[in-house]
Design a protein that fits this description.
Residues 359-379 are annotated as: Disordered. The chain has 379 residues and is mostly helical. It has helices spanning 2-6, 18-48, 77-81, 96-116, 140-164, 171-187, 210-235, 248-267, 272-286, 296-313, 315-320, 331-343, 361-378. The chain has 2 domains: 1-138, no CATH class; 141-352, no CATH class. Helix 7 packs antiparallel against helix 8 and helix 9 packs parallel to helix 12 (331-343). The N and C termini lie far apart (69 Å). Mean pLDDT is 85; it is low at 353-379.
Length: 379
């Protein structure tokens, strides 16, 4: 960056800008340290919370239950230093731990840089970044908004990791998300970033608009519920909150709506349909990366924090683009995004296994013979 900013001028050389640009390196390193540490904690949450264990206390080896030393618990690099094995029992430790730490760290680092340097958020004062005096502009609104987004990203990652493992979302996690995200927006309306209305003045600011914050929360939750039911045709086949409120498919639907509510609160109801379409496309790509045992809802759950981070990073250019639904967009743009979302269950459809009593006669007989063969093999 120092070389790029000093080219074409004789007033200063790259060496004159090294100390200035060192500030950028410090900010990026600090953000990655915080983000990867959050990722390390989310590994604990994803393992312990579905098992009703406390998330407090030091991390330990899942093989021999030995507590990890402080230097071994260093995010990402601790696992690399141990070469993926426990220092005590020398048994392998899953590479999932550093992968999650790195993924969360990178996502929070990118979002933090984009917001501290005012590169991503709409309705925000901008400044030129091309010269040697490129510095972050931080005030209370920026810090509160960044903290809110970091919490939302962390909660979205936690939900994705738990659902990827096939566990239903713990009630403690859903309650924490509701308190942090809904309560945070009602207390600090600044974190709305964009309004809940479709038409606002060009100089719109969210400071002090508590009534608008209430409407923003209501519209976001209604949109998440409605669009979640649309996706349920593929991800939660058979869900029926009225006739089967405690059924497995209904629980999957509730988890789906909860995961969708996070980007709905952060980004607003206007762009939610387009965000979910992008998330559905990312879900298809994750099929080649995640374990084959991960079901479609688990893949979609991991796609949600990735989509949320990308949406925040490119929020300003997308907000100004005519094809992306947002406040000020044409109703036809919103309807087009909603129509595209209606087609996503065709490629996100979860494979459904029916019991023998509802299968056709020939399939039921084949199912019974397969069960008999498996019983003989077990005996």
């Amino acid at each position: 960056m120092a070389w790029w900013q000093s080219r074409g001028t004789s007033h200063y050389s790259p060496a004159d800008l090294y100390l200035t640009r060192l500030m950028d390196v410090t900010i990026a390193a600090w953000l990655f340290w915080i983000g990867s540490s959050i990722g390390s904690f989310l590994n604990v949450v994803a393992w312990r919370m579905p098992r009703n264990q406390s998330v407090n206390g030091r991390s330990y080896c899942p093989r021999c239950n030995t507590r990890l030393k402080a230097r071994d618990n260093f995010p990402v690099f601790g696992w690399l230093a141990l070469r993926g094995r426990c220092r005590t029992c020398r048994l392998p430790i899953s590479p999932r731990y550093p992968i999650v730490e790195a993924a969360v760290g990178i996502s929070i680092t990118l979002v933090g840089i984009a917001e501290i340097y005012r590169l991503s958020l709409p309705y925000q004062n901008q400044h030129w970044h091309g010269g040697p005096l490129w510095v972050p502009m931080v005030d209370q609104a920026v810090l509160v908004t960044l903290l809110y987004h970091v919490i939302a990203i962390a909660l979205s990652w936690a939900m994705g990791l738990i659902r990827m493992d096939g566990h239903p979302l713990p009630r403690r996690l859903s309650t924490t998300a509701a308190v942090m995200l809904v309560g945070g927006m009602l207390i600090f309306p600044t974190v709305m970033v964009v309004p809940w209305q479709m038409q606002v003045p060009a100089n719109w600011r969210a400071d002090g608009l508590h009534v608008d914050a209430v409407m923003r929360v209501i519209t976001a939750l209604v949109a998440a519920t409605f669009l979640g039911r649309c996706l349920a045709r593929g991800l939660c086949i058979g869900a029926d909150p009225k006739l089967d409120p405690l059924g497995k498919s209904t629980i999957r639907l509730i988890d789906l709506i909860t995961m969708i509510a996070v980007p709905a609160l952060v980004l607003g109801w206007q762009s939610l349909a387009a965000v979910l379409v992008v998330g559905a496309c990312i879900t298809l790509g994750l099929g080649r990366v995640l374990p084959k045992s991960t079901d479609m809802l688990g893949r979609f759950a991991i796609a949600m924090p990735i989509t949320l981070c990308l949406s925040i990073l490119f929020w300003r250019p997308l907000h100004a683009a005519g094809f992306w639904p947002s406040d000020g967009s044409s109703p036809w743009v919103l309807l087009t995004a909603a129509a595209l979302l209606l087609f996503t269950p065709t490629w996100l459809r979860e494979r459904q296994t029916l019991p023998p009593e509802v299968l056709p006669l020939e399939e039921a007989e084949d199912h019974d013979s397969d069960q008999a063969d498996s019983t003989v093999l077990e005996n």
